[in-house]
């Protein structure tokens, strides 16, 4: 049975004996005066190092395609990292 888990990000990335592990988290609403954003762990992934590299390559291809389609913007002179911003129509760029 296939299970789908929604995640906003990954945390706690580690590797031991050729196995890469990371936790999947979701973000809640900011709380308190400091407006800290609570995270909730919703699952985790453990994969071989070659599997992790393949995932990275596949996700990089998806990002490149989204840039080509105009869904994402890439900052001038930068690689596609966290600088890739989703076009929402509300940006002031």
Characterise the protein shown here.
With 93 residues, this protein is an alpha+beta fold. It has one domain. It is built from 1 helix and 5 strands, in the order E-E-E-H-E-E. Strands 1-2-3 form a 3-stranded antiparallel sheet. It starts with 8 loop residues before the first strand and ends in a 7-residue tail after the last strand. The C terminus is likely disordered.
Q: How many separate domains make up the residues? A: 1
Indicate the proportion of strand residues. 25-35%
Strand order of the largest sheet: 1-2-3
Uncertain parts: 80-84, 88-93
Structural class based on helices, strands and sheet pairing: alpha+beta
What is the N-to-C succession of helices and strands? EEEHEE
The shape is extended
- What would you report as the Rg, rounded to the nearest angstrom? 16 Å
Helix content: 10-25%
Number of helices: 1
Total strands: 5
Largest sheet: 3 strands, antiparallel
> Please, what is the average pLDDT?
84
End-to-end C-alpha gap: 43 Å
